[in-house]
Write a structure and sequence with these properties.
about 30% helix, 8-stranded parallel β-sheet, 10 helices, about 325 residues, alpha/beta, 2 domains, 14 strands, TIM Barrel
Length: about 325
């Protein structure tokens, strides 16, 4: 079947406010700028959203410019996922364009993306809810509020000093919740085994990115009671040879450069016996929806990016009884 030529219709930068502030070891954010990419064949339209990876030096305007430049180079040949993934570098710009093309294909073929991609039909998933780094008393209050909303898995942001006290406070506020933590590269110079053991005693089941990207050799020979998960250290399949000492990887489509690469990375991780976490940046449900399709392949799902905003797009993902339910704004025929 000869498919119609798909071209870029528009690229826009949008600013979405955070509900309060989102705080990690690197600082606080009160808003997020996302890139909204729209493609069309003149009849069917597809949309994709991406959040620039700021610690890679990306910004929304730069990602938008990269998409426009690539579309100009593609010219009369039009856009396709195959060429986009072969010709664009990984990152948020490619994610927005790749996901827009998946969305277009669903509308063009009349089949949902999950079916086209050979993934499981999406079903409600328990998602982690993020507890921003703060003083222990505030984190205890925030954990208690999250549990009251029905969340059973909490992800706590850490910063190095005083982390055990923070998690002890969270445990006091949420005695029955599952806990995972994200050090965001802040444990350099710390005794990794001792830090992990202290958190294991508090029931923590996963520790994200304790060391800086590029310093993965620090983990060689270390045995901890809680598995370490590669986040900043893991972008796409090209990074896998460096991650032998990470038993878990966190797949984020903005890092990987789209759902196409995300599927490939998940396949490779399973082949190597690694366990999976599916994560996200701050974004609206349009940015979360493609990652939601990979959720059934992961042991830990951390897709609360839209839940941390002051408002979301219409027809977005919804939370009921702590479960994230698929929305209808992306990846479905219509």
């Amino acid at each position: 079947m000869i498919r119609p030529l798909v071209r870029l219709e528009s690229v826009a930068v949008e600013r979405w406010l955070v509900a309060g502030a989102f705080t990690i070891s690197r600082g606080a954010k009160t808003h997020v700028d996302v890139v909204l990419c729209t493609v069309t064949d003149g009849r069917f339209v597809g949309r994709g959203e991406a959040t620039p990876i700021y610690y890679h030096g990306e910004d929304a305007e730069g990602c938008a410019a990269a998409i426009r430049a690539y579309a100009d180079e593609a010219g009369a040949g039009g856009l396709s996922r195959e060429r986009v993934n072969a010709q664009m570098p990984r990152g948020a710009a490619r994610n927005a364009l790749d996901c827009a093309l998946w969305d277009w294909e669903a509308r063009y073929t009349g089949a949902p993306v999950w079916q086209i991609a050979g993934l499981a039909k999406p079903a409600p998933l328990p998602t982690a809810f993020t507890i921003s780094i703060s003083e222990p008393a505030q984190m205890e209050t925030d954990a208690r509020a999250a549990v009251a909303r029905g969340f059973t898995l909490l992800k706590c942001k850490l910063g190095g000093e005083g982390d055990a006290a923070r998690i002890a406070a969270v445990r006091a506020g949420a005695p029955d919740a599952r806990l995972i933590v994200d050090a965001n590269e802040s444990w350099n110079g710390h005794d990794l085994e001792a830090e992990a053991s202290a958190l294991a005693a508090l029931g923590v089941e996963l520790i994200e990115q304790p060391i800086r990207h590029g310093e993965e050799a620090q983990l060689a020979g270390i045995a901890t009671p809680v598995p370490f998960c590669a986040d900043e250290s893991c972008q796409d399949r090209a990074d896998m040879p460096r991650l032998a000492d990470f038993p878990v990887i966190n797949i984020k489509l903005d890092k990987a450069g789209g759902l196409t690469e995300g599927i490939g990375l998940a396949d490779m991780a399973h082949q190597q016996g690694k366990r999976l976490m599916i994560g996200c940046m701050l974004s609206t449900s349009l940015g979360i929806a493609p990652a939601f399709l990979l959720g059934s392949r992961a042991e830990w799902v951390d897709l609360d990016g839209a839940l941390l905003l002051a408002k979301d797009r219409e027809a977005g993902l919804a939370v009921r009884d702590g479960l994230l339910h698929p929305g209808t704004l992306w990846g479905l025929p219509g």
